[in-house]
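Please fill in the sequence for the structure shown.

STRUCTURE ENCODING:
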């Protein structure tokens, strides 16, 4: 890997093994729920990426600096204390404000939702957020279904 290359790359692990390795029964249950939800919403096979992230598809990006690379289109990571849901390349908060307000308890960053308990959020709203994020990404970037 060259210094300019993205450090987060696909690795040869089974998504189920990543989920099963999480210590909490609640996190494992949430992880398997997300595995099914993302598979249904994307229609794509999951791939594990370095750092224990489970991603779907890929998109090619180029920054204004000229640096380019590829990353997964959407995905999640089962973590010790929460599930992290990735909406790439980030949220349009004006467009998603109402959805995020209806989702239920969560925290969010630029492109990540942190959900402590999936049984406390609305799965239909989460599906809408994932779908909207994918639609926005596909309109702006070259995408790959692998």
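FILLED IN BY: designer on duty
SEQUENCE:
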């Amino acid at each position: 890997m060259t210094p300019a290359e993205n450090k987060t790359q696909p690795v040869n692990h089974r998504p189920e093994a990543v989920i099963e390795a999480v210590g909490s029964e609640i996190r494992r249950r949430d992880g398997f729920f997300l595995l099914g939800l993302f598979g249904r919403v994307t229609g794509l096979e999951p791939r594990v990426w370095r750092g224990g992230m489970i991603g779907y598809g890929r998109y090619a990006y180029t920054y204004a600096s000229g640096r380019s690379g590829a990353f997964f289109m959407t995905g999640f990571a089962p973590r010790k204390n929460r599930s992290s849901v990735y909406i790439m390349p980030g949220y349009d908060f004006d467009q998603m404000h109402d959805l995020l307000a209806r989702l239920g308890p969560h925290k969010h960053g630029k492109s990540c939702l942190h959900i402590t308990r999936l049984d406390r959020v609305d799965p239909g709203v989460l599906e809408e957020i994932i779908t909207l994020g994918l639609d926005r990404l596909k309109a702006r970037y070259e995408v790959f279904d692998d």
